[in-house]
Amino acid sequence: MMTPEEYRESLKRMNFKAYALGEPVEEPTEHPLIIPSQNAVAATFEIGQTEDSCSALGSCASHISGQSISRFTHTHRNTQDLINKVKMQRELGQRTGTCFQRCVGMDALNALSSTTYELEAEMGGESNQRFMAFLEHVQQNDLVSDGAMTDPKGDRSKRPHQQPDPDVYLHVTEKRSDGIIVNGAKLHQTGALNSHEIIVMPTMSMKPEDEAFAVSFAIPADTKGITYILGRQASDTRKMEPGTMDRGNVIYGGQECLVVFQDVFVPWERVFMCGETRFAGILVERFAGYHRQSYGGCKVGVGDVLIGAVAALMDYHGLSKVSHLKDKLVEMIHLNETLYACGIACSAEGYETPSGTYEISQLLANVCKLNVTRFPYEIARLAQDIVGGLMVTMPSEFDLNHPEVGPMMQKYLACSSGINTVCRLRMMRLVENITIGAGAVGYLTESMHGAGPPQAMRIMIGRQADVEYKKSLAKRLAGIGSVVEETCACS
Length: 491
Ligand code: SF4
Ligand code: FE
Hints:
Layout (H helix, E strand, L loop, with lengths): L3 H9 L5 E3 L2 E3 L9 H12 L8 H4 E3 L6 E3 L8 H18 L6 H21 L3 H15 L3 E4 L22 E5 L3 E12 L6 E4 L14 E6 L5 E5 L25 E12 L3 E4 L3 H39 L6 H26 L2 E2 L5 E2 L2 H11 L2 H13 L2 H4 L3 H4 L4 H8 L8 H15 L4 H10 L4 H11 L2 H11 L14
Parallel strand pairs: 1-10, 5-8
Antiparallel strand pairs: 1-2, 3-4, 6-7, 7-11, 8-9, 9-12, 10-11, 13-14
Helix pairs in contact: 1-2, 4-7, 4-8, 5-6, 5-7, 7-8, 7-9, 7-10, 7-14, 8-9, 8-10, 9-16, 10-14
Bound molecules: iron/sulfur cluster and fe (iii) ion (FE).
């Protein structure tokens, strides 16, 4: 397993073609907008190390080699693995207060391990053999993979093959004896520029006419023809300013990119799906299910940070004994722990697939994520209620350090006696970061749309809930079918 430093060094050896704020990025590892997100991924390399208090969560035994590997490169062998995954994610959310980006790759590996197994069993070919060779490579080298699913989609009323510009869905443009050529793009790619490999998957279920779009493969993230355009985040340029206070989170941040594929060559040994449309929907559903489980860990960890920040500010403000504020804090905790309960529950109810990889309970993972589309917003609302408006109206760190106006800020923004005003202001900036600044990308909007928007969860919940069975329960107790014969047409 790599150390955080070895991880950073490994990224320096990559040769990305990247842009940020309209400029080419020569060296992503030295770019101030990117460094905080790299710090967050580097934290995933700390948690697996033996000296770390949570090493048992971050590392496990490979079922291929038997060696100790990062859990981020593991395919779950039992329900305890699924539970440990969520616990690890909560721990990392607590440590970083942001999205640490590496779960998309872990979730893609797990979804592909079972899907390629079933694909190869049904249709022949080498899908699973190729995937297993790739998995071994990832485990042996402790690589970060970016799981790339979301296509731009163009005209939403049209299927992929009907689009005037077919590139709005990533697709195969040529099949050669040695591999395939692909064109298209993937949106919202979490941690793409911090990854060694990029794992492409279809964005949705595909019909036979969409054969060219049912494609899945993995290639080194700096493969020729791939361009990364860094996403903007609210208040992101604060990361480029001197000083740290106004960043809120002084060490860590998230990252999303628009990733464009222009005539990218993929050798056959890295192609896991190419035209097997029936399996596109299965792969999408499994990847989304794992990532909906993931949010029951990572968002909870960030919620812990936010609750801690609010509680600290209540202390600083001399309000820690005010009953209605204490009650709101309890409400935040209740909502946060409910998310965690869902993440653990969908893991505990997991089951083995024919490949040996464990799946989560799809029903409970979708309930988990549907709650995630709501509860962080309510937790953030309560945080802003308790903390007050100063977090968005207070002057900058530049003013705080100014010889004339700095003392004015110190005097008029002071709080309880004995509390350093700067501590109060820094804590406010952290709340601002998570609820409205750069951190809100991961904590709020990603909670809404990451791993699919709320309607996607509703569809899955409706499909998984077995309402017919529930009807039969009710009919038995009402005596329908026993005391009275059921004759209605709706039966
Ligand atoms: Fe991991 Fe959460 Fe970021 Fe997804 S949003 S990559 S689950 S930290
Ligand atoms: Fe995500």
